C-alpha cells in the first residue's frame, strides 16, 4: 500500500474519532479489518492517529497562529495530521509529507483546498519556532503544549496538587507497554515465554502477564488463543480476589464487556462457574467469541442490565465483580480521545451511576462472600469516595486489604489499589475488595 493510501485511511480514522466521537482502538480495528494492510502500514497509520489525537490542542494552537480564518472540520483534520508529521515524525522527508497532504486535501475537498493546505504547511515548514508561540501564563503554556483540556487539568490539580497533576498529564502522552496475558487452559506462562523468546519478558506488575518488545496480532500464538491482549492493571482485578483458586465458587461479573476480566477470572478459578453479564447482545457475542477462541469452559454469558435488580441473583454468589463503567481517565495513554470528553459534571453523573450499580450488586453476595469494585479511572469521586460512601451505608461490608503475589504494586493505607499512570508503564486503575460479614445487632 502506498503511503498516500495509508494517509487516507489515517484521515478516515481521525474523521470518525474527531467528528463522529469514535473510540481510537475500535475505529482503527474497523479500518484495519476493511483494508489489506501490512504491519508497517498499520504502525504508520497508528502513529499518525494516536499522535494527532494526543497533541490535538497544541496542533490546533499552531494552526491558529498561521491561519486566522475559519477552517472546515475535514480540512482541519488534514492540517492536524500534516503538522503532526512535520513536527513529530522524522522518517519521512518534509517535502513528501506536504505533497501527500496536498494530494489528500485535493481528493477530499478540491484543488483550492489543496492550495490552502500547501500554503499553511509550507509556511510552517519554513518558519515554525515553538518559542514564537505566545501564552498568557506558564500553566496555559503547559496545558496547550501537552494538549490537556483545562477542565481536566483543574480536576487533577484539585485532587492531586499541581506538581503531581503535571506528572500525570505528561504520562498521558506516553504509551503503555505491550502487555499480554497468558491463557492457562491452553498453555503455561513458562511455555509461552519459551515460544516467544527474546520478544517477551515477565511483568513486574501482574504475575499473569508478559511484556512484548513488539506487538503483532498476526502472531500464530495469538490466533491459537495462547494469549490475549490485556493491560497489566486490568489483569490485576482477577489477581486481587486472592481466594483459594482450587475451590468451587459461584462468580458473577455484573458489567463484563468487553470480557477480558471475566475470562481471566474463569481461567484462574478453573473449578468455579462464572456468569458474565452485559445489557448489550452484540457485546455478549464478542465475549462468546473470545470464550470459544481461548477454550474457557466454565463461563456463560447472560443478557442483564447491571442497573436493574435480578431477584434470582440475590444472596447467590460467592464472588461478585463490579468493574463499572467510568470516565476512563486512567486509560488516556491508550485512548487519548477520552481526555477531550471529561468534565466535572460528567464525572459527577457517572460516579452516581457507578454507586447505583454497587448498591444493586451488593444484594447478590452471600455471607462471607466477596464484592470486587474496579474502575479504569483515577478520579477519586469514582473510586475511594464511592467506596467510603458505600461502607458508611453498608455496615455488613468490610474493606479487605489486597495483597498481590509477585507484584511491585502495593495497597494504599485503605487496603485498595490505586495505580496512577505516571508511576507505571500501564493504565491507571482502582481496585477494592469488600467482604460481606454478619451484621451485628
TrEMBL record:
Entry GO CC: cytoplasm
UniProt-annotated location(s): Cytoplasm
Protein role: Specifically methylates the cytosine at position 967 (m5C967) of 16S rRNA.
GO MF terms, alphabetically ordered: RNA binding; rRNA methyltransferase activity
Reaction(s) catalysed (UniProt annotation): cytidine(967) in 16S rRNA + S-adenosyl-L-methionine = 5-methylcytidine(967) in 16S rRNA + S-adenosyl-L-homocysteine + H(+)
Keywords: Cytoplasm, Methyltransferase, RNA-binding, rRNA processing, S-adenosyl-L-methionine, Transferase
Domain SAM-dependent MTase RsmB/NOP-type: 153-437
GO biological process annotation, one example: regulation of DNA-templated transcription
Active site: 376
Binding, S-adenosyl-L-methionine: 255-261, 278, 305, 323
EC number: 2.1.1.176
NCBIfam families membership: PRK14902.1 (NF011494), rsmB (TIGR00563)
First-listed, main subcellular location of the protein, grouped into a coarse class: cytoplasm
Protein name: 16S rRNA (cytosine(967)-C(5))-methyltransferase
Family: Belongs to the class I-like SAM-binding methyltransferase superfamily. RsmB/NOP family.
Record carries keyword Metal-binding: no
Amino acid at each position: 500500500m502506498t503511503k498516500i493510501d495509508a494517509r487516507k485511511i489515517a484521515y478516515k480514522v481521525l474523521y470518525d474519532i474527531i467528528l463522529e466521537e469514535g473510540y481510537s482502538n475500535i475505529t482503527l480495528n474497523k479500518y484495519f479489518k476493511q483494508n489489506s494492510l501490512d504491519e508497517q502500514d498499520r504502525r504508520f497509520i497508528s502513529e499518525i492517529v494516536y499522535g494527532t489525537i494526543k497533541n490535538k490542542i497544541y496542533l490546533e494552537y499552531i494552526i491558529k497562529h498561521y491561519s486566522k480564518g475559519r477552517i472546515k472540520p475535514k480540512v482541519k483534520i488534514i492540517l492536524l495530521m500534516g503538522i503532526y508529521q512535520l513536527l513529530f515524525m522524522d522518517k519521512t522527508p518534509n517535502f513528501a509529507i506536504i505533497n501527500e497532504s496536498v494530494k489528500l486535501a485535493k481528493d477530499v475537498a478540491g484543488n483550492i483546498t489543496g492550495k490552502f493546505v500547501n500554503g499553511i504547511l509550507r509556511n510552517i515548514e519554513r518558519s515554525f519556532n515553538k518559542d514564537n508561540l505566545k501564552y498568557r501564563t506558564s500553566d496555559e503554556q503547559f496545558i496547550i503544549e501537552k494538549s490537556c483540556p483545562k477542565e481536566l487539568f483543574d480536576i487533577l490539580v484539585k485532587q492531586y496538587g499541581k506538581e503531581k497533576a503535571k506528572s500525570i498529564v505528561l504520562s498521558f502522552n506516553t504509551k503503555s507497554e505491550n502487555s499480554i496475558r497468558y491463557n492457562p487452559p491452553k498453555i503455561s506462562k513458562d511455555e509461552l515465554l519459551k515460544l516467544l523468546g527474546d520478544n517477551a519478558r515477565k511483568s513486574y506488575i501482574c504475575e499473569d502477564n508478559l511484556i512484548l518488545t513488539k506487538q503483532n496480532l498476526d502472531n500464530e500464538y495469538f490466533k491459537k488463543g495462547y494469549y490475549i491482549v490485556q493491560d497489566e492493571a486490568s489483569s490485576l482485578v482477577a489477581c486481587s480476589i486472592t481466594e483459594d483458586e482450587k475451590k468451587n465458587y459461584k462468580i458473577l461479573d455484573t458489567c463484563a464487556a468487553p470480557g477480558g476480566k471475566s475470562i481471566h477470572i474463569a481461567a484462574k478459578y478453573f473449578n468455579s462457574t462464572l456468569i458474565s453479564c452485559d445489557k448489550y447482545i452484540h457485546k455478549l457475542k464478542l465475549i462468546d467469541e473470545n470464550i470459544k477462541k481461548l477454550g474457557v469452559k466454565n463461563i456463560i454469558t447472560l443478557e442483564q442490565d447491571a442497573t436493574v435488580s435480578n431477584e434470582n441473583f440475590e444472596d447467590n454468589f460467592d464472588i461478585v465483580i463490579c468493574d463499572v463503567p467510568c470516565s476512563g481517565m486512567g486509560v488516556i495513554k491508550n485512548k487519548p480521545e477520552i481526555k477531550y470528553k471529561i468534565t466535572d459534571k460528567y464525572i459527577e453523573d457517572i460516579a452516581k451511576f457507578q454507586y447505583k450499580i454497587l448498591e444493586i450488586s451488593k444484594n447478590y453476595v452471600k455471607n462471607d462472600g466477596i464484592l470486587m469494585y474496579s474502575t479504569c479511572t483515577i478520579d477519586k469521586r469514582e473510586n475511594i469516595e464511592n467506596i467510603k460512601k458505600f461502607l458508611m451505608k453498608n455496615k455488613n461490608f468490610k474493606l479487605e486489604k489486597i495483597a498481590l503475589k509477585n507484584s511491585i504494586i502495593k495497597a494504599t493505607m485503605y487496603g485498595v489499589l490505586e495505580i496512577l499512570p505516571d508511576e507505571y508503564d500501564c493504565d491507571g486503575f482502582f481496585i477494592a475488595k469488600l467482604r460481606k460479614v454478619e451484621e451485628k445487632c
